[in-house]
Amino acid sequence: MASGDLSASTSRDGVAEYLAAVTARLAGPPAARVAVADELRDGLLEALQAHQVQGAAPAEATAAVIAEFGDPGAVAAAFGPELGAVQARRVALGLVVTGPLVGLAWIAAGVVNALVPWPHQLIGPWLALPVVGLALVVAGPALGLTVATTGRLGRRLGRVVHRVTFFRSRTHSRVVIDAPVLGKDDAAASGARIEHRAQALGPESLDEPFDEGEVGAADQLPVGLR
Amino acid sequence: MRAEVLKGHLDGLLLATLTDGPRHGYAIKEALRAGSGGRFDLPTGTVYPALHRLERAGLIAGSWSMVNGRRRRSYALTAAGRRTLSEERSSWWEFATAVTALLGERPWPAAT
Fold it and tell me: Counting C-beta atoms within 10 Å of the first and last residue's C-beta, which end of chain B has fewer, N or C?
């Protein structure tokens, strides 16, 4: 990566610092963050080249490019809803795949229990069956909605659904954003609002397993800066 | 032009820069700036999230390529993007014609 290496000159160092400042504030799946970093890096180098071709000295060009791209916090924040939607979609798809497996495991446990005589009958799974049905009735459409609205279908489904998606994707992005990133005033405010909404949804809310899954994942996301 | 006025038309303007063929993010931003005579000079960093939003909506399609040893993402209009662009164009003409009819007179030099 000869010409892609940002450390090749001092002016590139300045731009690399800027890129690091933006990517450190990004939340979302690692692959999506690497893609954003790659795209921004290409744009930054392109801009740097354009300024130098016009005769700007390296230091001037660096300052101009950084001013042109805008405040790192604002840029990262602008990516927030997009990366949040990617995250929500990914988690929803994960649940769509793993949910039936968990259900099968419960059914298998019930069948085994019915075939093999135990001193104490395991009746829990059978008692829980109506609840499972209810959960499926709620979870199925909700997952479908998340997957549909975070993809290209979202645009066709109209404004009402769009608002739901906005709320949902904000919920998930709230979960994956690290605490220091939430130092932004509006992020803290929206976090409080979302927690309020999550309570309103009740303990059976779909968001609960989402939260548990993603808090851990947020710690292991290195930003793919090369 | 005020930022909030531009905001409602940003999607259409971004789509319009791709009429002549695929472009990468920085070239799209430059096309906006040059095409507007320097009036629409957006912070480059915020053009990319807007492009990602359009891509998620299926209006543009991004693809990666290697240019001079670095990864570059280019965007092209999709069929849905072309349809949306032509809708944006006609609704803009409708709006602009109405506003021009009401506001379009050139301002008179201030009376002294």
Answer: C
Phi, psi (rounded to 5 degrees) for B57: -80, -5
Task: Pick from B14, B23, B28, B48 the residue to mutate for testing the A interface (most A CBs within 10 Å).
Answer: B48
Residue B100, both tokens: 């021009």
pLDDT band at A194 (very low <50, low <70, confident <90, very high): very low
Q: Phi and psi for A69 in degrees, rounded to 5? A: -75, -30
Alpha carbon A51 to chain centroid, angstroms: 34
Query: Is pLDDT of B61 > 60?
Result: yes
> Is the confidence at residue A188, as pLDDT, over 90?
no
Calpha distance A200→A194 (Å, rounded): 10
Measured between beta carbons, the chain A residues lying within 8 angstroms of B24 are 42-43, 46
Task: Return the closest-CA partner of residue B51 out of A39, A151, A64.
Answer: A39
Residue of A nearest to B69 (CA): A1
Q: What is the rounded distance in angstroms from the CA atom of residue B44 to the CA atom of residue B26?
A: 7
Chain B interface with A: residues with Cβ < 8 Å: 24-27, 29-30, 43-46, 48-50, 52-53, 56-59, 67-73, 80
> What percent of chain A is modeled with pLDDT above 70?
55
Model ipTM over 0.95: no
CA torsion A98-A153-B77-A75 (nearest 10°) is -70
| The pair of three-digit structure tokens given for residue A172, joined into one six-digit string | 């998930």
Instruction: Tell if the CB–CB gap between A45 and B70 is shorter than 8 Å.
Output: yes
Whole-model pTM over 0.90: no
Spatial distance between the Cα atoms of A176 and A218, rounded to a whole number of angstroms: 5
Are B25 and A24 in contact, with CB atoms under 8 Å apart?
Answer: no
Q: A95 φ, ψ to 5°?
A: -70, -35
Q: d(Cα A73, Cα A209) in Å, to the nearest integer?
A: 29
Nearest CB to B26: which of A1, A46, A155?
A: A46
Which of A1, A35, A69 is closest, CB to CB, to B43? Answer: A69
Q: Which of A15-24, A77-86, A134-143, B94-103 has the lowest mean pLDDT?
A: A134-143
CA dist., res. B96 & res. B87, Å (int): 14
